[in-house]
Every structure is written in C-alpha cells, then in structure tokens.
From TrEMBL:
Enzyme class: hydrolase
UniProt EC number: 3.1.4.-
Lineage of source species: Bacteria, Pseudomonadati, Thermodesulfobacteriota, Desulfovibrionia, Desulfovibrionales
Protein name: Phosphoesterase
Family: Belongs to the metallophosphoesterase superfamily. YfcE family.
Domain of life: Bacteria
Length: 156
C-alpha cells in the first residue's frame, strides 16, 4: 500500500506545476493525505478528486475542515493533524500520542521540516513543506506492506 503525504502547500490557487507534481507522484497512490495549510480552497478541491483523500485544517486554512482525522486502512491506524498549537512536535511526540493513542502512524505538518521516526510502537511522519512557489521543500511517499514502512522524501 502506498501513501502520499503532503503538508503546508501554501498555494492560493491551482498551478500547472502542482498539477504536474500530482500527476507524476500522487495520482496513483492508494491513500492521499494532506496535513493542512493548503491556504487556498482550490488546492483542497483539486486533491479531493482523489478516490481516497484525507485532509485536515491548518492554521492558514480559512475554510471548513476538521482539525484532526483518524482512519484505518488495511489494518493500519492513522492519525492526521496539522500540529498547530502542539509545541515541539519532534522533541515531544507524547502530545501527538495523547491525541491518537492507538495509532500506528501519525502524520503532521506545521514545522515545514521533514521528519520520520518510530517512537514506542508508533511511526511519526512530517512530510515537510510542499511550497512550489519557493521551489523548496518536500513531500513523502510511504510504502507500507509489512510491519516496517519504507519512506521516500521527494524534493520539490
């Protein structure tokens, strides 16, 4: 199973560059997750066409979205949040474990820094920022077919 995870796109409107990125890397993933800070609704609606799309609200999103999501896919329990208001996510993952205590994977954003680690029985993934307008950043492709997921950070 392949997950595409992105966050902090900070785009106000759709761009050819973002559409090409989606077509090349994300269109065929089994599950597409966005950890918030779309900034513009147009990006959300574009990604919402994916058959298995999960998204949460970031602190730069001023349209209706939930601040957290929880899903179970093929036996994997996944929590998704933006992370705004959670202090020092990488140094103190317990705050995220309190939100999703039985998750196998917790996806979050907000810090704009890529991060992948296993703490206790939970994997933590921050895909970084997918800011095409600045030609910087990353998103993540996560292959998870067994107990140990394989992560690939794609630079944009």
């Amino acid at each position: 199973m392949r997950f595409g995870v992105l966050s902090d796109t900070h785009l106000y409107s759709m761009s050819t560059e973002f559409e090409q990125l989606y077509t090349k890397f994300l269109k065929d993933v089994d599950v597409l997750i966005h950890c918030g800070d779309f900034t513009g609704e147009e990006i959300y609606y574009f990604l919402n066409n994916h058959p298995k799309f999960i998204a949460v609200k970031g602190n730069c999103d001023f349209f209706e979205l939930s601040p957290k999501a929880y899903l179970e896919v093929n036996g994997f329990k996944i929590g998704v949040t933006h992370g705004f208001g959670v202090l020092d996510l990488e140094k103190n993952p317990q705050q995220l474990l309190n939100i999703f205590p039985d998750a196998d994977l917790i996806c979050f954003g907000h810090t704009h820094k890529k991060y992948f680690s296993k703490i206790k029985n939970t994997y933590f993934l921050n895909p970084g920022t997918c800011q095409l307008k600045r030609r910087q950043g990353t998103f993540a492709l996560l292959d998870w077919n067994e107990k140990n997921p394989k992560i690939q950070f794609v630079e944009v």
